[in-house]
Design a protein that fits this description.
Blueprint lengths: L3 H13 L3 H12 L8 E6 L2 E7 L4 E6 L6 H16 L3 E6 H6 L1 H13 L16
Parallel strand pairs: 3-4
Antiparallel strand pairs: 1-2, 2-3
Length: about 130
């Protein structure tokens, strides 16, 4: 198990070295009408660092590049996702190409995952820390 301080340092380094697709999605997430809901970038959860995390909904967004098609990487992704889902998180994955091809559709799906429908009104979501 990796120590919390090492994970926090890794997350900080990843935030400093974001990919172009992560920057695009981060700007898009900040423009979503989420009314008090917030996302974190490169957040440490258990033994992993996730791309984007909404604590109030326990929702994780992962961006995958072409290397995620490799058998070894895909296996690690499945194991990682299984661990996160067993801990009560919902993981949503997007390909980098989806971010560049149709960011609006990606943001719409995220909104629907947060609030249930496209027509739902954005309401403040409360984050309750687990103790």
């Amino acid at each position: 198990m990796v120590s919390a301080s090492i994970l926090r340092a890794a997350a900080k380094k990843l935030r400093a070295d974001t990919t172009p697709h992560e920057r695009i999605l981060w700007r898009g997430l900040r423009e979503l009408p989420t009314d008090g809901t917030h996302f974190r970038r490169q957040a440490a959860i258990g033994p992993y660092v996730v791309d984007f995390f909404c604590p109030a909904k326990r929702m994780i967004i992962e961006l995958d590049g072409g290397h995620h098609n490799d058998d070894d990487t895909a296996l690690r992704d499945r194991e990682r996702q299984q661990w996160l889902e067993n801990e009560g998180y919902r993981v949503i994955r997007f390909w980098n190409s989806e971010i560049t091809a149709d960011l609006s559709a990606v943001l719409e799906r995220i909104y629907v995952e947060l609030y249930g429908t496209r027509e739902a009104e954005a309401v403040p979501l409360r984050h309750h820390r687990r103790r």
